[in-house]
Amino acid sequence: MSLLVEKTSSGREYKVKDMSQADFGRLEIELAEVEMPGLMACRAEFGPAKPFKGAKITGSLHMTIQTAVLIETLTALGAEVRWCSCNIFSTQDHAAAAIARDSAAVFAWKGETLQEYWWCTERALDWGPGGGPDLIVDDGGDTTLLIHEGVKAEEIYEKSGQFPDPSSTDNAEFQIVLTIIRDGLKTDPKRYHKMKERLVGVSEETTTGVKRLYQMQANGSLLFPAINVNDSVTKSKFDNLYGCRHSLPDGLMRATDVMIAGKVSVVCGYGDVGKGCAAALKQAGSRVIVTEIDPICALQALMEGFQVLTLEDVVSQADIFVTTTGNKDIIMLSHMKKMKNNAIVCNIGHFDNEIDMHGLETYPGVKRITIKPQTDRWVFPDTKTGIIVLAEGRLMNLGCATGHPSFVMSCSFTNQVIAQLELWKEKGTGKYEKKVYVLPKHLDEKVAALHLGKLGANLTKLTKDQADYISVPVEGPYKPAHYRY
Amino acid sequence: MSLLVEKTSSGREYKVKDMSQADFGRLEIELAEVEMPGLMACRAEFGPAKPFKGAKITGSLHMTIQTAVLIETLTALGAEVRWCSCNIFSTQDHAAAAIARDSAAVFAWKGETLQEYWWCTERALDWGPGGGPDLIVDDGGDTTLLIHEGVKAEEIYEKSGQFPDPSSTDNAEFQIVLTIIRDGLKTDPKRYHKMKERLVGVSEETTTGVKRLYQMQANGSLLFPAINVNDSVTKSKFDNLYGCRHSLPDGLMRATDVMIAGKVSVVCGYGDVGKGCAAALKQAGSRVIVTEIDPICALQALMEGFQVLTLEDVVSQADIFVTTTGNKDIIMLSHMKKMKNNAIVCNIGHFDNEIDMHGLETYPGVKRITIKPQTDRWVFPDTKTGIIVLAEGRLMNLGCATGHPSFVMSCSFTNQVIAQLELWKEKGTGKYEKKVYVLPKHLDEKVAALHLGKLGANLTKLTKDQADYISVPVEGPYKPAHYRY
Amino acid sequence: MSLLVEKTSSGREYKVKDMSQADFGRLEIELAEVEMPGLMACRAEFGPAKPFKGAKITGSLHMTIQTAVLIETLTALGAEVRWCSCNIFSTQDHAAAAIARDSAAVFAWKGETLQEYWWCTERALDWGPGGGPDLIVDDGGDTTLLIHEGVKAEEIYEKSGQFPDPSSTDNAEFQIVLTIIRDGLKTDPKRYHKMKERLVGVSEETTTGVKRLYQMQANGSLLFPAINVNDSVTKSKFDNLYGCRHSLPDGLMRATDVMIAGKVSVVCGYGDVGKGCAAALKQAGSRVIVTEIDPICALQALMEGFQVLTLEDVVSQADIFVTTTGNKDIIMLSHMKKMKNNAIVCNIGHFDNEIDMHGLETYPGVKRITIKPQTDRWVFPDTKTGIIVLAEGRLMNLGCATGHPSFVMSCSFTNQVIAQLELWKEKGTGKYEKKVYVLPKHLDEKVAALHLGKLGANLTKLTKDQADYISVPVEGPYKPAHYRY
Amino acid sequence: MSLLVEKTSSGREYKVKDMSQADFGRLEIELAEVEMPGLMACRAEFGPAKPFKGAKITGSLHMTIQTAVLIETLTALGAEVRWCSCNIFSTQDHAAAAIARDSAAVFAWKGETLQEYWWCTERALDWGPGGGPDLIVDDGGDTTLLIHEGVKAEEIYEKSGQFPDPSSTDNAEFQIVLTIIRDGLKTDPKRYHKMKERLVGVSEETTTGVKRLYQMQANGSLLFPAINVNDSVTKSKFDNLYGCRHSLPDGLMRATDVMIAGKVSVVCGYGDVGKGCAAALKQAGSRVIVTEIDPICALQALMEGFQVLTLEDVVSQADIFVTTTGNKDIIMLSHMKKMKNNAIVCNIGHFDNEIDMHGLETYPGVKRITIKPQTDRWVFPDTKTGIIVLAEGRLMNLGCATGHPSFVMSCSFTNQVIAQLELWKEKGTGKYEKKVYVLPKHLDEKVAALHLGKLGANLTKLTKDQADYISVPVEGPYKPAHYRY
């Protein structure tokens, strides 16, 4: 795509694939609203007061139909919004079109190059001379990273006049980041400093991003307050678990139409995401083998009847491989070379470094046959057998299907709205320091409560006497902080 | 589409949507071959001898990737093939293109009108002046029906000179059938008689078609031998059950992206298809309610933890409705009007008369909003609430997704190949009368055996002593005819 | 026990372990009645007319609480009953006591020797000089066998004056049978002939007994009509499947308290019983491996996610072994010697020849440590490791627990009552020849229907129009004979 | 039982039901040792050094076979042990006999009265003039309670000369506690003060006891350090969840033999215990309805396909009721009166106040029919229908079956051993204040690791590079404290 910003008739910027899909996007957004009771309840409760009045929010989070409902909840509460996706394959183009046309500045399309990806990120952060954003919704932490790296580079530049040098790193993606920062520096040597100053805080969506934040907190480099949305119970124990239980088979089916029943599957990692994936595969009739480093998670897998082995033990016998670890270098070229013909290899963890795509792509003589977008067969020259890699090693549920369904994303995104409201409400009060926070349990319980009616549930009410007996307030919260659910 | 037959460079006729998709189809056919060990084993075992040499086979069966592998197995065994789909939405256009280009005369595309559908059927039956077909592969029995109705009309015409009168029926589809026959009669008053004379037999794929055949056998009107492939164990207890367990959620996800977990689902009918659907929904976290007329199937549902109620009991509380009965008039307009907003209504039974589409379409003031092809929201004028109907009430797994996966279809289609071989081998021997037959158990067991290796199974072998003890041959068959599996 | 028949105050014969348990038995019988709606419905429907008036019924079927409700249904319908158990460990002594005291002549206790077992069988058949029985309820066919062997011996004796020679066989149990017949011959050389003449028929409960009956039918040696109750759908697809799914873990838990989760289990055979066992173990968190000879059943196992291997493949890795085959020589001494320390070995098939108990018992130096009745640890002298064998290789669910629960046995036993009624009603009409029959489908459906109300089910009713469309009567039966459920 | 302490030949005190069961107990203990790799690993690792040399340990924890292996692990590490059960029905008499004979002073039998229960507790605490205990293993906190109440009474007595007055409370059980303390005061007015002074700390096993400890910590009344074993992941997420998944159906089956399939079950509470119970009932084919007060747990239940309703909504339709809440007054008399005939009511929470037994027992005209010990049918005079109450409302898995299986208890008890070792090692160091502590994560992971080998698992090892990437040590711990598993 040519990287030229377009404008709506009202003058709002955007860059999407096909504006003609906006009507289709709108129809699906309307369906999703019915499935997202938490977000709709936020609109009902907070919408009239417009609490986000004056707030400029930048979001970097898969530009899907569900995210569209999140964005329009933020705007319904008064915010002005700019958005990009946090994954090159995860945008649903009709969702992007509808939002770009109707609600917010969107820079996202399915199938971005890495260059385009970071261009979009930078566009979403660019609020023009007036400055901004005030708040960030981040997923995986790329936006947060850009600002931190930007500030770092500006400091070096200020001290030494040195520009960042993209050739200083082997990492192709980081080269792009440095290039963007370098080019920005030339225009405005205080760009990221201004951003940092203005920024009230970030709410982070996922395990990987949260991990980065805690690392920055630990080494004292975190530049603004952060709310860890991922570790709300109603996020990590729902979206990560039940979302993946839904979207892993969805991605497999759309990409390959493979019969899961009877197959041998390997799930690398048995955290929340791995638990959801293993459950889905088992239920579809697959025999599932789990790999784990953590003995507790391994023992959980065993209690559910899964075999726990190493990848080396099973690499030549399995049909389907899924990485869910949040770590790197899980399935390497050496593994892939030992796999059965047409073994399926995919990743549902946030980043694409779980599978050694670089090793695969650069293997001498390897042949890539694109069956359809995001479904490639890679044939090894020695054996003439191939493996099928989904979404180029990136999040397969978003690359090959449409990600998690609306209902479970409503839980996650209601946490996002609450986190953003909290940050904005407390701006200037000093309540939040440059640290990482989780939402208090009563808000977590509230998110859950907003989703019960849609499913026809009747909650039991504690009597005062019962509440006293277990030492909790009648209206909750009901559990100690360490409770694991 | 304009109903003009096209021709390949080699002169073979076809009519498909987009010939440029042939390469894509070929790639997916090659993937499917790896998943269809039964068909590939047939090619290896029988291919060299070309047992179908001289045989002209007409097929009327969903023109999917899996069917493509079936067709190319028939041609690999020496047959000449013409093909149409047995459902207006079930064709995969890339599969049709690849076969049309490479292997057989195909008349099929996704989204046919009924008019087009019967035109395709008639094309597939038309082998030109040399006559044909010798054999039919039927699914649902429409081709068989056309020949029987044609013969009937020709007899009346011969006796009375009367043409069939399309206006004699209310049924829109049957009007088309009569029109086709009438027009044919004008050209050749013995057309279907000649077909019947030449025809060696039909092998029928599905419950619905088999039911029709047994009815014809019972009333003495069956015109040629038929092999009931559906009731091979390796068909009805696999394709119907495990196929639907896979493809029902696939269809739901592709059409609606709805979260199945937490939802209330109603499965109408608890036969093999219903069992597969109920299992899939339960495993995805839905609460499933079954409706049944048969107390035995109802008791089976209860033993699996499903509630058994009538549709009236639950119509206003459920989120997802699936018909699997093979019967008609299951979900009527009166039901649909009572459903929750955005309740999903779909059918996975063979014919589209399980859901009262006519009642819905003709309800005064009803508004149809097409979200995307095969996903419509119908809004009632009184309540302004809508329901979501998939694939216009037709087979949702084929209309909204890609049908059953290759592996399980390999079981079904290997039965088809064996049935066709058997009919062709015994042509002229009188072994098969104008009756309905099932394949002998040793062939059923053979089909299963051909699929074990792919899944890494090791079968135990009976000793002679053990075989004698249970009075079976060492090499099988191992079960009495009445065994239910 | 001393083998002396005792008598109640009313003069009815019996031999049970402890008459003081009769009150306890009565309480549990009353609970069971609430769980056995089919039998209670039979009492309500048929009781007043006393259709069994004059009928003498001998039963040989596990003398449990559930069987007690069956017996009292037969007596409520007018029959006179004598009963023994068909397994040396399956009697529940409190059930036997209650029935002996209140309703019928019982000869059964938990822990019979084989000698005692056959003595009981013979007592149950001995109706004194007036002759009898008129009808037999058999389970596994031992009573039927005794009569057939008796008749055979009498014929030889009549022709040649020769007595049967127990030493002519190696089989210890068959030696006992021949001894009983020999001793009987000395008293009355026409004893079994008279029995055969009077006998109206037998209804057989289980797969193993049915197999024997079909063998006799095939070779022309069957002496009286037989109804195959096992193959009623409401028997084999319920009792065998759901009964075992319940009682296998029950037996394992009561015998060993072993944690099933995380363990590797091997289920030998994947018929109805094996399916129930494998499902139960999987659900309890075990990893299950299936062994099969039949490729169709093997493919079913694979579709459910079970690995299919041979016993040899896994014998040294598994923790729990269950035989369900109905065949012999499944787990041999050579297997047992390779097992892990404290591997659990048990059988849930009808006969005790699935496990090579003889080989184990006679292995030089092997040591048997009885943990508690029906739970033995066998220690091999070479390795000092042991295996745990349940119920001495006999039906572990009845030996170590209480067998199948009442509700599912109500299905089976309602079939028994209906079969007995049918045989008795048609005595002298010639309807039933010396062949094996199954109950007609409408009765099978009736049995199911009688069990729906208890579980709160509402059945849907076909309209006449719908019934015509699928060519069935409105009131059923709803399926063709070959339907597999 | 007469409350006279007996002595072994070596002079060790005990009071058990039947010393002749010691051999049987020993055999089952030996079997359990094979299933408890964590405890056996502790013996191997720590046994030689006898780290508990000189330590006097009092335990109050279900005196089962598994606890026997725990006790003998403590003695193998050098401790001297006195033990009582923490529930009147949970003792396995053969386990008690074996331990009393071979290893420790045991005061416990199945079916204690409350009077006897507290006598046993007091015996277990009484180490004679030398004083003691040094350490307590508590389950539910009764021993801890007794000491705290004793100290409180002694303080009042010291100040005011007043004895505690049992008639000051309505609670029958607390009257017994006060009586014991009063009688003790008369003998030694500093008894509990001396105990408190000597006591190094307590390790508490279960949710209920932990709740009490946190309450005492909160109000400053806790008298000694406490380690919360319950909230080790390898305890609460294993024993509570997988233990109950095993032992709930075990208890139901042994107590009632009821068929679970097809029944409607209500599980009150969806914490770890409730999750295990609901999973077990679902897997056995029951339709499960959950009641919850906490919206998050309620939403989890919905995601698994369970209906969430109030008890009032379903009380008249369900067949089986299980309380798992840890709260009081869950199933009241008013509920029980509305239940179906022979509905089963049971509790698997720690205390017996979840079910209103007092209301039931004192209902005018109610009739109690004891089917067998721990299985009572209570008949209401008005309706003549009855409900079946298990274990008199106490822990049904221990009252009606044998509690959790060895393997999962090995996880729990290995935590206990580690906690006791930690307290003992740190006595006098001041590391532990009068607060509640959980074990550090690396010990939790160690417990899990000790249990993997038995189940054949192979753990994957992190590379240094990977460990750095996710910021954990190569050897663990692998998760942040807030991780929920």
From TrEMBL, chains A, B, C, D:
Signal peptide: none annotated. NAD(+) binds at residues 206-208, 271-276, 292, 348-350, 397, 404. Keywords: Hydrolase, NAD, One-carbon metabolism. The keyword Methyltransferase does not apply. It holds the Pfam family AdoHcyase. Binds 1 NAD(+) per subunit. Pathway: Amino-acid biosynthesis; L-homocysteine biosynthesis; L-homocysteine from S-adenosyl-L-homocysteine: step 1/1. The keyword NAD applies. Its cofactor is NAD(+). Its EC number is 3.13.2.1. It catalyses: S-adenosyl-L-homocysteine + H2O = L-homocysteine + adenosine. SUPFAM superfamilies: Formate/glycerate dehydrogenase catalytic domain-like (SSF52283), NAD(P)-binding Rossmann-fold domains (SSF51735). This is Adenosylhomocysteinase. GO terms for molecular function: adenosylhomocysteinase activity. One of its GO terms (cellular component) is cytosol. InterPro entries: Adenosylhomocyst_ase-like_sf, Adenosylhomocysteinase-like, Ado_hCys_hydrolase_NAD-bd, NAD(P)-bd_dom_sf, S-Ado-L-homoCys_hydrolase_CS.
